[in-house]
Specification:
The chain is built from 5 helices and 48 strands. By secondary structure, the protein is mainly beta. The longest helix has 17 residues. It is globular and about 85 Å long.
């Protein structure tokens, strides 16, 4: 009887515990000074040791037991906040974190903020300090250059600004700036990217296990958000480097309610060249290249729970050559650019759900123009292409209980392709190629179930997408999976899988190695690209300042596109889709990331062992051949050392050493010579006496690539803000890394773009 009574009481006790009321906490995490939200901040229930992280907008949800709860809120570079609350009903909680004592050192040396690989498979979170104070080309910080130091992200050849992630093409990455897709990354003809480091707030790169909310690309997602602007004080910075000048200004419109941020950059060496050339009486030849961009963002809050954001970006590049001779003048130019705009609203309901709605507009254009004027002749030629995208998206997030939460949404978009056309005028106007306008409509719905209990956590998602000139031309289901298992405080195992579909392509306009491509829709007999990828690995954290992350992956692609046989004819062709080949792709490898951080110095090592190949029936007899950026070994070592710290300022050294296998190139395997013209009836200004034979694309490799970049940074504190000088060397030991290989007569020669280059930049913050 006593035993039965004991069991009964124990059972009632368990029921009582289980019957305890569940309290839902929702809210946002803010910076105490600027009042900007903090994405990926961590919130931990001190009793159950379970927690959550804030989403991309700084919002969170979590469930706790009714009564007294202990919550710890933390974010890298900020002081951890501990709260003790007595809760008996669902609660809205806004948390404010104060920058920590070591924030200045973290900002200066980048040693306190690591690239967070963490326990989510395929995800890398990049701290802004790693971008701002990394060695950079000509003193201009470059997010893409920093990303290329990470494992699984191919550096490609010298001078490129595109991303090649885990064996994927450059067009297989979804690049988002404040939710609006970016269709061209390059500035200064591929030397820099469109992202201004002074405006970046948060960077997430998904290499695998991409969440279901993202779609339309095969390889990766780069999600970049722009800062909202300080809501309490006015701040800004002015910078000048050997390549460009820039300024940023931000501040409150209504304190703690509304703020703004505006930033602009422009290259300036071309202005000096033009001024010098125009002042010379004998000036006959003027080359130039320039870029400019503007970022602007406004946000405001209504009734403490409705948040509105307006974000805008515009940028343009142009390379030109102008000449005058004997009463005539000519001009040739190539240009490209982006216009992006995003409107977003988010709020929290009384029930704790997080709602978000956004609309975006993205426009990418590129052109080639040639003009010749004389006393008797006035003629011009132009080739132009344009792509526009208009999209709407709505999603909701809700915590169901202490174990499950859900995220679901819908999106629709329209893409408008003004396909490449060529116009010519010499007395009369001719349209040589007019491919008209094509439309692509996309409708998608997705849902993700997130799970977290004991040592297990993960998510399973499904994305359903329809697209085509008619929205129901194609229908695909795209499952996504991410899992991790925490063995103990040091070891975490992780795995992921995904299936992706891509309904558009980007084709290069030439094969000589310089940037330039055009986005194209599905047309003719082209099929959507598809791919699945599986990955698995572990995260090892034996010490607070030591992180080791390893992931292996296997990726299989279908209907991947390439214009290997006619790379220069896609632009000026009416039936352009006939010049595009489709086939299969395969990629597999291992990514390793090791980070070690101390108070005065840090080091990061990234290594990839990988292989990627393509098979197309019409090429190489249907056999596999290397992908353009098939790099077997890719090693990067980067870090910093603070060698002086005083009350008036600091000095520190940053470095980056990269070495990787040579990238594949296509060169003639044989050359057939003849003493007579090979095509005697061919009407041409030259006579062909040789024909090149190519065994298959990418049949040779460039020499192995390696380079060292170093910079010394000196900061002096002022009454308001600080002054920073940066002096450095890019390619410090003058390694002659080839950009392309070209044929000169019977010889092949290497073109080297960047020998040793000095770097000087100045920045004044206020």
């Amino acid at each position: 009887m006593k035993c039965f009574t004991f069991l009964l009481l124990a059972g009632l006790s368990v029921l009582s515990v289980n019957a305890q009321k569940q309290i839902k906490i929702s809210g946002s995490v803010y910076d105490a000074h600027s009042k900007e939200t903090l994405p990926t901040a961590t919130l931990l229930n001190g009793i159950t040791q379970k927690g959550t992280i804030t989403n991309a907008y700084g919002d969170f949800q979590m469930q706790v037991q009714e009564g007294v709860v202990h919550i710890e809120a933390s974010f890298m570079g900020y002081q951890t906040l501990s709260l003790q609350l007595d809760l008996h009903t669902d609660t809205m909680l806004n948390i404010v974190l104060v920058p920590g004592i070591e924030l200045a050192e973290a900002t200066v040396t980048a040693s306190k903020e690591a690239v967070s690989a963490g326990t989510t498979p395929g995800l890398l979170k990049l701290p802004v300090s790693a971008i701002e104070f990394a060695p950079s080309f000509a003193g201009e910080n470059n997010l893409i250059t920093t990303l290329k130091t990470l494992p699984g992200v191919s550096a490609g050849k010298e001078g490129g600004s595109e991303l090649y992630v885990r064996g994927g093409r450059f067009d297989q990455n979804l690049i988002l700036l404040d939710g609006s897709p970016v269709y061209n990354l390059s500035h200064a003809f591929g030397l820099l990217s469109v992202f201004n480091a002074s405006t970046i707030k948060n960077v997430n790169l998904y290499k695998g296990a991409i969440p279901a909310e993202y779609g339309g690309r095969l390889s990766s997602v780069l999600d970049v958000s722009v800062r909202e602007g300080h809501k309490n004080e006015y701040h800004g910075d002015i910078g000048v480097s050997t390549l460009a000048a820039a300024f940023t200004f931000e501040g409150p419109i209504v304190k703690e309610k509304a703020s703004f941020l505006v930033s602009a950059r422009r290259s300036w060496p071309d202005l000096l060249v033009l001024a010098a050339m125009s002042s010379a009486n004998d000036a006959e030849f003027v080359p130039g290249i320039y870029f400019n961009d503007i970022n602007a963002k406004v946000n405001f809050t209504c009734w403490d729970k409705h948040h509105f954001y307006l974000s805008y970006y515009t940028g343009q590049d142009e390379m030109f050559v102008r000449s005058k001779y004997d009463g005539s003048d000519t001009e040739s130019s190539q240009g490209w650019g982006n216009h992006l705009a995003t409107m977003r609203w988010n709020t929290k309901t009384k029930g704790g759900s997080l709602l978000n709605a956004s609309a975006h507009y993205s426009r990418f254009f590129d052109y080639n123009r040639d003009r010749y004027n004389s006393e008797t002749v006035n003629q011009w030629t132009k080739q132009e292409a344009l792509m526009e995208e208009i999209g709407l998206k709505f999603n909701a997030e809700r915590t169901l209980n202490g174990v499950f939460s859900i995220k679901a949404g819908v999106e629709g978009l329209v893409r408008i392709f003004s396909l490449p056309s060529t116009e010519y005028e010499s007395g009369s106007n001719y349209k040589l190629y007019d491919q008209g306008t094509q439309y692509q409509n996309v409708l998608a719905a997705y849902g993700t179930l997130l799970y977290s209990k004991n040592q297990w956590s993960g998510s399973i998602g499904l994305r359903a997408s329809m697209f085509g000139e008619a929205v129901n031309d194609y229908f695909f289901m795209e499952p996504r999976l991410a899992l991790n298992y925490r063995l103990n405080d040091e070891w975490t195992l992780k795995a992921g899988a995904m299936y992706n579909v891509q309904p558009l392509y980007a084709m290069t306009k030439a094969n000589h190695g310089f940037p330039g491509y055009t986005w194209l829709p599905l047309s003719g007999n082209l099929k959507p690209q598809t791919a699945y990828q599986v990955s698995a690995g572990f995260h090892y954290n034996p010490l607070p300042n030591l992180h080791v992350d390893l992931e292996g992956y296997f990726k299989r692609s279908y209907n991947v596109a390439g214009n290997y046989m006619y790379s220069t004819t896609v632009y000026p062709a009416n039936e352009w889709y006939k010049y595009i080949n489709q086939g299969d792709g395969i990629a597999y490898g291992t990514d390793v990331l090791i980070e070690y951080r101390r108070k005065k110095w840090d080091v990061k090592l990234g290594y990839s062992l990988a292989e990627s190949a393509v098979r197309i029936d019409e090429i190489n007899f249907g056999n596999w051949f290397p992908f353009e950026y098939d790099i077997r070994h890719d090693l990067n070592i980067a870090g910093s050392w603070q060698f002086q710290s005083k009350e008036e300022g600091k000095k520190w050294l940053t470095y980056n050493y990269a070495i990787h296998s040579g990238t594949p190139v296509t060169l003639p395997s044989q050359s057939i010579q003849s003493i007579r013209p090979l095509f005697p009836n061919h009407n041409s200004w030259y006579t062909e006496r040789a024909a090149a034979y190519y065994s298959h694309p990418n049949n040779y490799r460039l020499r192995p690539y390696h380079r060292l970049d170093v910079a010394i940074n000196m900061e002096k504190y002022k009454k308001r803000g600080s002054r920073i000088w940066s002096l450095g060397l890019m390619n410090a030991y003058c390694r002659m890394n080839p950009y392309i290989i070209y044929q000169d007569g019977n010889q092949f020669k290497e073109l080297v773009m960047f020998p040793i280059l000095p770097v000087v930049s100045f920045k004044r913050t206020f």
